[in-house]
Amino acid sequence: MDFAPHAVTALMGPSGCGKTTLLRCLNRIHEILPKARVEGKVSLDGEDVYDSGISAIELRRRVGMVFQRANPFPTMSIAGNVTAGLLSDVPNSARAQIVEKALRGAALWDEVKDKLNQPGTSLSGGQQQRLCIARALAVEPEVLLMDEPTSSLDPISTASVEDLMESLAKEYTIVVVTHNMQQAARVSNYSAFMLSGEDGIGHLIEMSETRQMFTKPTDPRTEDYITGRFG
Amino acid sequence: MINKDVWDKNRGGRKTRSAIGVFLTGLCASLAALALLAVLGYVIYQGARAVNPAFLTQLPKPVGETGGGVANGIVGSLITVALATLIATPLGVLTGIFLALFGRGMVAESVRFLSDVLSGIPSIAIGLFAYTLLVAPFKHFSGVSASVAFAVLMLPLIIRTSEEAVRSVPQTIREGALALGMSVYRSTMQVIVPAARPAIITGLLLSIARVAGETAPLLFTAFGSPFWTVNPTQPMAQLPLQIFNYAISPYEDWHRQAWGGAMILILAVLVLNITARFVFAAPKNRQ
After folding, report:
1. Region at B3 (left for phi over 0; alpha for psi -120 to 50; beta for the rest)
2. Taking CA atoms, which of B32, B116, B152, B160 is between 20 and 30 Å from B18?
3. How far apart are CA B107 and CA A75, in angstroms?
């Protein structure tokens, strides 16, 4: 499957079909689990990311990730969270600017600009999730992976994160996992539908422009899922 | 149809059985607390008569003279325990981090098992070990040999509590750090260990409290001394040893001083335990 640059691609499907697992293979974060292994190939700008010449650290700086539950670093301030991923050779003078840019990028700046030194965990759930997005943006990745970024948020916070995804898509390539079809329809340009087969292994059923998938799905299973007949 | 009996009376004796259960567990809890309070109360009652400024600042008086104090024992114990903490902390905390984050398979299991075995070894045996290692070859007792014995006693506790502390940092936090492109070293030192720090410090304080009152390993390591010694390569006065020697002596005045020493020791351990609780309770913003 191809992820179009500067667009939002949604991975959807019922629980257990491997959406998150697929996403986690894209930045090699699954490698921290013991016994994890990968078959196949993942390319970024034509380079195989599992090539031994590419370090996972380097890759993850180019492919940022936002998780299902906001996970701000508990001992760090808001500003500290944003700069956590920066390399140590970034001078202190540049950090304040990076913090502002990243927080503006995550639509959080106005809410937190007066309390940058307070703990990141003092924010509300939705704000914490946007802080995690800002943290990922500060490293200036090319791709942003989002694993059900709104599943633990209330509707208003969800709306603000969705708005954010739309504006971020102008600069970043976004891949978002969601089991919420309305969300996929609202935010994504392209969609992929996955389903786990009889063998327990997740399969890609179809992938197309979101508009087409929701109006004229080619596979009957996609249609069943989208129309709510199962899942 | 709802059976009307369900709503009234005793529900077939269940309420009675529940009441008996609550009463029995409550009774046992009270007895346990009472035993602790009785020890604490009696030691303070007896010890308060002995503790005065002179007791805290003076050296022991020779046999036959009344008065004197345990100042050298307090200082000696502080030095020995501080040295032991210096030895055991880096070893124990780093081992705990290793077990929690990187240790897999046989190596980690062996370390964990050995640490558990170590925590079950009687302290007197560990004292003998320190004697063989650091007293016998040098032909004299020393404070530092006691510190090594203490450090060995502290190790399993520190390893276990540090491992638990690091393990209790959610996996999502660790993934978040790595997903930012942090190296494993950096994510460990800047994100995971800081998040575990309060629990690690709590473990350290509890392990200090655990060894502060140990007497058996001191008998043939620090040995005790009636003089001022702040040099840990020499035999050193130790508060628990002074309590032991005074308590088995035939002199009324020394019995009084043994209670005084015991009270100081208990209060010190109590303060450590209470501090440990506060350290752990402090950061409310943990998820």
Report:
1. beta
2. B32
3. 31
Contact list, A34 vs chain B (CB under 8 Å): 104
Chain A contact present for B172, CB below 8 A? yes
With CB atoms and an 8 Å threshold, state whether A74 touches B177.
no
Distances (CA, A) of A64 to A29, A157, A164, A225, B285: 10, 21, 15, 29, 26
Inter-residue contact B83 to B134 (CB < 8 Å): no
Whole-number Å distance between alpha carbons of B127 and B218: 7
- The nearest CA of chain B is from the CA of A204 a distance in Å of 25
Q: A143 in helix, strand or coil?
A: strand
Nearest to B175 among A64, A67, A135 (CB): A67
CB B133 within 8 Å of CB B145: yes
Q: Which CA distances in Å does B106 have to B101, B109, B155?
A: 15, 5, 20
Residue of A154, A71, A164, A65 lying closest to A109 (CA atoms): A164
Residue of A29, A55, A71 to mutate, testing the B interface (most B Cβ within 10 Å of its Cβ): A71
Cβ atoms of A81 and A135 within 8 Å: the answer is yes
Domains in chain A and their CATH numbers? 8-75+143-226 (3.40.50.300)
The CATH class of the B53-281 domain is: mainly alpha
Chain B contact for A144 (CB, 8 A cutoff): no
Tens digits of residue pLDDT in B239-248: 999 999 999 9
pLDDT band at B281 (very low <50, low <70, confident <90, very high): low
Please give the structure tokens belonging to residue B196. 């575990």
The neighbouring-strand residues paired with A8 are A174
| Domain parsing of chain B, residue ranges | 4-47, 53-281
* Chain A residues with CB-CB distance to B287 below 8 A: 74, 121
Tell the burial category of B70 from Cβ atoms under 10 Å away from its Cβ (0-12, 13-18, 19+): buried
Q: Which of B175, B180, B191, B197 to mutate to test the interface with A (most CBs of A within 10 A)?
A: B180
Computed over every residue of chain A, the mean pLDDT equals 88
Low-confidence ranges of chain A (pLDDT < 70): 230-231
DSSP code per residue over A149-171? TTTTS-HHHHHHHHHHHHHHTTT
B286: confidence class by pLDDT, cuts 50, 70, 90 = very low
Burial class (CB in 10 A: 0-12, 13-18, 19+), A64: buried
